[in-house]
Structure formats: C-alpha cells, structure tokens
Amino acid sequence: MKAAGVVAMSGLLGCEAETKTQTTKHPNIILIYTDDVGYGDVGCYGATKLKTPNIDKLASNGLRFTNSHAPSATCTPSRYAMLTGEYAWRRKGTGIAPGDAPMIIPTEKTTMADILKKAGYKTGVVGKWHLGLGDGNLDWNGSIRPGPEDIGFDYSFLIPATGDRVPCVYTENGKVVGLDPNDPIKVNYKKKIGNDPTGVENPELLKMKWSHGHNCTIVNGISRMGWMSGGNSARWIDEDMADVITEKAKAFIKDNKDGPFFLYYATHDIHVPRVPHQRFVGKSGLGPRGDAMVQLDWCTGELVNLLEELNLGDNTIVIFTSDNGPVLNDGYHDDAVEKLSGHKPAGPLRGGKYSAYDAGTRVPFIISWPGKIKPGKSDALMCQIDLMSSFAKLTGQSLAINEGLDSLELLDALLGKTENGRQNLVEHSISGTLSLIVGDWKYIEPSNGSKVAWQTGIETGNDPKPQLYNLKNDIGERNNLAHKKPGKIQEMAELLKIIRDKGRTRI
C-alpha cells in the first residue's frame, strides 16, 4: 500500500468556507458516477419525456458541460482511466471485467483517491466497482484483497462487478456482507456449479426474461452472467439496491462531516437489470429504464439534500456524470425499446454505449460548488481522466512524472473560469477502435469488425475506411468528409499515432 502523507493546506482558490460542523481550506468532493446514462437522458440536456428535477437543479446551481467525455465507451475502462489518469487502452486487461476478475489497477499505481488522501481527505467508494478484486485466486468467504483499500480508499461498500454478473452480494471493507460461513460462496464463469436454477434451464422461474448473454444462475428471479452457489443469506434484492447504496453513501458523509472527504458514489442505475424499487415503478411512463432514471434522480437528491441538512453545501463540490453512453436492449427484455415513446437517450448524437461515435463517450457532466462556481454552461472539451490532475492542483499538489500519464490539469475550465479545455482527446470503443478529437474535427481510425454491437442495435463505428467529421456543423456524425479532406485525415492520423506511441499525454 502506498504511503498517505499529509500535504500542508494552501489558500488556493480562497476556499475558506466555514460551516457549523466543518472548517477546512479544502472542499469536500462527491463524484456521482452513474451507469449507462446518455447525453439525452437528463432534462437539462434536452430530455422532455423523462423528468429529472434533482439533477436539473444541480445543473442550475452549477456548470453544465456540453462536450465532456467518459474515457471509454464502456464501463470498466472508463473507471480505470478516471481513477488512474491513464487511458485504459494503453494497458492490457482493462476490458469489461467478468465478476471474478482480479483487480486490474496495480496496487503500486497512484490513483485519484491516493492524491486526495495525501491532502488529508477521508476517501470512500460506495456502489458499483467493476475493476476486479483479489489476485486471481479469490476466496469470497474470506478477506478480499487486494481491493479499494490498497489503492487509496479508506472505506468501501461495493457491488463487486455489475448487477447482471455473479456473485450477487455486497462487500464492505473486503468482506461479503451478511455471509453465513456454513453456506460458502462459489463462483465460476466457465461452467455451471451447484444446483441453483438457471435462466436457460428454468425460464419459468424468471420475473424478467433474458434476451442474450444473461442465462446462468438465477438470483432474485433474474438470471445473470456466470454461475454461483451458496451465500444465500448475503444475496442482494435488486429492488432495494439503490436504497442500500444511497444509505451507505449518506452514512459515509455523516461519519466524515468534519472533513474533508472524497466520496466516489458509483450508482448501479441505469445499468441492466433495471429493477427499480416499487415506489418508482411506472413513474416515468417509459418502462423500467425510465423508472430507473427517476430512481437515480431521487438518489442524487438524497445526497444533495443531506449536504444542506449538515450545512456542508457551500463547501462541497458535487459532480454528476456517466461512465459511457446509453444502451437500450442490453441483455434483458425490459421494454426499453418498446416504451421509448419518443425519448432520445443519446440526444442529437450518433451511436451509444460500445460505439466509436460520440454518443459512446460524450455524456452529461455537471459540477456544482455554490459560491465558487458560477452557474452556466461550458463548451470546453473535457474528459473525466483529467479529474486526477485537476484535484491535485485544487489541493496544492503536483503529480509525479509517472502518475496520471494522460490526466491534464484543467482546474480553471472545471471551475468555469475559462472554456479552454483539452487541445485533443482520444476516444475508445468496445472493439478497440480509437478516435481523435481536435477542435471541431473528429477522426475515427480505420478498423475491421462488426458494424453493430451484438444484439443491441448500436452502431460501433467500425469501418475499414477512415472517417472524418466536423462536430460543430455535424454533431450527429452523418457527413463523412474523409474523401474531401485527405490532408486533415493524414494530419490527425499522424497525431493519433504520436499520442499512441508516446505512451503519455501529460508532459
């Protein structure tokens, strides 16, 4: 485990806010990291069919970015890059992790949590992890190491992978919650184990039918990816998941109200299986996906309201964003397509989750810090990968040469003091295809592979010929200008090669 020395507080940004319970020169930070929420899924980004009043209120009190990106078009690589400040495509083994994957962030690698811990923050992660746990020989019935505590987090309460993958249990500080030692957990992703019913063998037991890839062990009436046996007393109830992790997040805030604290709150919503609590069922009129979005909005409101109750609102940065773009049919029959009713999850963008097109990574990004960030809108090109360097600057630190290799210090843009963001950004799709954005131009490198991601119907952006789009005039990436701009294609292809070969973006 890395040392966590304390760095002297600085008067940077004049953050001298006082509350009844807290006096600190560094603000608290809450990162609400949602799952599969698209650019068009939020009211303040143009959604009219879905109502998201709490998220919209956060935006009205803060800064809404129109050109901010997740590091990848899928979950695991985005989370890896956001926490380490390194593009995930630079490192092998950072694809979508199975539920029994070893932890993919090396314990010697500095993370955003490490940086904030060095500045005196109490650090916690609550919710979806999906970055692997253990060293490859994990015994779910004992101490689960390595884990978040080995990469900078003081506290963890985790959904180990995703809701659609076994094991369907929570872990807290490296232990499965509620486990009966007489009913040990076993997990296997290669063959069936135990006698639990499965989706493919016992479809009559399902309360939600699978469409593809989710037909193994049934837990709570839903078949998952992978097989598990045992751990019956520890298994979660999907309908209660949002309540459980939100209460854990609130408890972390209360326990650390004297601060400063950093809370990485990674929601499960609106990832599949979409099984919102009964009090949200039917509230959106758009089926389970829409109802899960209503539930997510409630979760956001719960955290923001608690800050106000504890008089911490003025000294807390709250960020709301998503790990990648939207997907509808992602393994279960939940009427996501049938009940869209005109809703456009990607807004004006093309593609979605998994895609090289912009809907894969351009996601909602809202930051609020009352009294410090002027409410408004920013068109700066930003990426979640830059949070690490920017938070280092916020807390009076500098990254070492081998830390945050692709994380740029963009604190002024993050705080709305300038719209000068990144000069360029590399986007990453499920197939490994890379895209490069420079100013208004976007280049998608030639690639082979399927043009549609599995049974989702989402365009991957794969094409054996290069693609070039002017995003200012063509945000929907419909007019490929490659044949008209061979010089621009060559220029951007060469720059992408330099970025790839150099092994780092940050000087």
Radius of gyration: 22 Å
CATH homologous superfamily annotation of the largest domain: Alkaline Phosphatase, subunit A
Helix coverage percent: 10-25%
Estimated share of beta-strand residues:
15-25%
Give the CA-based shape: globular
- Give the SSE string: EHEEHHEEEEEEEEHEHEEEEHHEEEEEEH
Distance between the termini: 26 Å
Runs with pLDDT <50, length 5+? 1-24
State the name of the first-level CATH class of the largest domain: Alpha Beta
Q: What's the count of strands?
A: 22
Q: How many strands, what sense, and barrel or not for the largest sheet?
A: 10 strands, mixed
**Structure classification:** alpha/beta
Mean pLDDT: 94
Count of alpha/pi helices: 8
Give me the side-by-side strand order of the main sheet: 7-6-5-4-12-1-13-14-2-15
Kindly give the count of domains. Answer: 3
Secondary-structure arrangement, i.e. CATH architecture of the largest domain: 3-Layer(aba) Sandwich
CATH topology (fold) name of the largest domain: Alkaline Phosphatase, subunit A
